[in-house]
Amino acid sequence: MATVEFKGKTFDVDEDGFLQKFEDWCEEWVEYVKDSEGIKELSPEHRKVIEFLQDYYKKNGIAPMVRILSKVTGFKLKHIYELFPSGPGKGACKMAGLPKPTGCV
């Protein structure tokens, strides 16, 4: 297990850089992933995606399929990729503190 240190916090991550424990998610983690993903500034649209992913995960224990993410947020898949260049599975789920998705997110 690897660790990441950022702004005085230490995070346990898996081999792909996803948080090991959802409970460790915090704003410092968001800032770390934002920087590593090359996102200059978080918009309310970024926050909407992150909040939906977290709520869905808390209720279902998994990340939602991309169709559900798109339908609930109202964002087309293309726009989600504009917000999170590495995609909904890698960038958005990682930033939201979810484990690495196993299926088609």
From TrEMBL:
<dbReference type="GO" id="GO:0097163">
    <property type="term" value="F:sulfur carrier activity"/>
</dbReference>
<dbReference type="GO" id="GO:0002143">
    <property type="term" value="P:tRNA wobble position uridine thiolation"/>
</dbReference>
<dbReference type="Pfam" id="PF04358">
    <property type="entry name" value="DsrC"/>
</dbReference>
<dbReference type="GO" id="GO:0005737">
    <property type="term" value="C:cytoplasm"/>
</dbReference>
<dbReference type="InterPro" id="IPR043163">
    <property type="entry name" value="DsrC-like_N"/>
</dbReference>
<dbReference type="GO" id="GO:0016491">
    <property type="term" value="F:oxidoreductase activity"/>
</dbReference>
<comment type="similarity">
    <text>Belongs to the DsrC/TusE family.</text>
</comment>
<dbReference type="InterPro" id="IPR007453">
    <property type="entry name" value="DsrC/TusE"/>
</dbReference>
<protein>
    <submittedName>
        <fullName>Trna 2-thiouridine synthesizing protein e</fullName>
        <ecNumber>1.8.99.3</ecNumber>
    </submittedName>
</protein>
<keyword id="KW-0560">Oxidoreductase</keyword>
<dbReference type="InterPro" id="IPR042072">
    <property type="entry name" value="DsrC-like_C"/>
</dbReference>
<dbReference type="InterPro" id="IPR025526">
    <property type="entry name" value="DsrC-like_dom_sf"/>
</dbReference>
<keyword id="KW-0963">Cytoplasm</keyword>
